[in-house]
Write a structure and sequence with these properties.
5-stranded parallel beta sheet, 327 residues, alpha/beta, 7 strands
């Protein structure tokens, strides 16, 4: 377990204890005002205990079990009416928790809750300064004026019109996330906005409460090899499992890693496993389709071009234009 994960678990425990104290205080005030609610809660607790004891002893008196359950149903109905008549609703008990899914335990159905996963990923973002990047690089800040309006003879369309189509697909990707499943491949030379657009998507989804893992290909595969060969790795690095579990995985700069049989195998594992699990992936690369076909195994190339929407970026280097204030 790495340092960051331990810190997050301590924070989760702290939130859980704070929520329990807050809930206990609220119940105490409620019981003081409505003693009958406490009587009902105590009776429900006793009924629950009785049913549990019957189950442990394999007590199979169906009439007795039905009697206890019927009594509990009547008490619950009375409790609900009492609360409603006195101005209380479900939020009185629920809004003490920061996460309604796991009730601040960090786990749902014995698995890490999305709130825990996102806190971990957000912490990694903060440490790498990506939080600031997402604040600056978003859909509103995307400037189409950096792309020429002159038709490109090779593609029969201007870079600006092409980018408007790409931008619209990226925006729809965010709006339809969770409803329609799609993988994206951004390819083209450096300085054309591929990373900027992936940051736009990541930032928007993070704000929508989705778990997003952004990593460069060299970072991802270096961490994979560290884990595979039990080498010392960055103690603050995100667990490799996040690459499989995150709602969205973004692999930036594919092709800049040191290619080995291991990296090819792991890349296939990531993209294939995520595709089968209907978890979207975005890959950004300077490689051409031909480069990908020759740089990676047939099965990797086949998965990418068979399961990804390919979006070509072309035009003049935006970074040069920004440097010289050319718009």
């Amino acid at each position: 377990m790495n340092v960051i994960f331990e810190e997050i678990l301590r924070e989760v425990d702290k939130n859980k204890l704070a929520a329990r104290r807050k809930l206990a205080a609220r119940k105490a005030l409620l019981y003081e005002r409505l003693p009958r609610v406490k009587e009902i809660d105590d009776s429900l607790s006793q009924s629950g205990l009785a049913l549990a004891q019957m189950a442990l002893k394999k007590y199979d008196n169906d009439d007795k079990i039905a009697e206890i359950r019927d009594k509990s149903t009547i008490l619950l109905s009375e409790r609900k009416k009492l609360l409603y008549d006195n101005g209380y609703d479900d939020s009185f008990f629920k809004d003490v928790y920061k996460c309604q899914s796991c009730l601040d335990t960090g786990f749902t159905n014995d698995e890490h809750c999305n709130c825990l996963k996102q806190r971990l990923i957000t912490r990694y973002f903060d440490m790498s300064n990506l939080g600031k990047i997402f604040a600056d690089e978003n859909f509103d800040a995307f400037n189409m004026n950096y792309y020429s309006d002159t038709n490109d003879e090779n593609f029969g369309i201007s870079p600006r019109k092409n980018m408007m189509k790409v931008w619209e697909i990226a925006l729809n990707f965010v709006e339809d996330f969770g409803k329609n499943f799609e993988n994206l491949l951004f390819y083209g030379q450096s300085g054309l906005g591929k990373t900027f657009l992936t940051n736009c998507i990541a930032g928007e989804l993070l704000q929508n409460g989705r778990t997003v893992l952004y990593t460069t290909a060299p970072q991802l595969f270096r961490h994979v090899e560290d884990e595979r060969f039990n080498r010392k790795s960055d103690k603050n690095a995100a667990p490799i499992s996040f690459a499989y579990d995150a709602d969205l995985l973004i692999i930036d700069d594919l092709g800049s890693e040191f290619a080995t049989v291991v990296t090819d195998s792991e890349l296939f594992s990531f993209i294939n496993s995520r595709h089968l699990a209907k978890k979207p992936t975005i890959i950004s690369t300077n490689l051409t389709p031909t480069d990908i076909a020759t740089s990676y195994s047939d099965r990797v190339a086949s998965r990418i071009y068979g399961n990804y929407t390919s979006l070509h970026f072309f035009g003049d280097d935006i970074r040069i234009a920004k440097k010289h204030n050319i718009v």
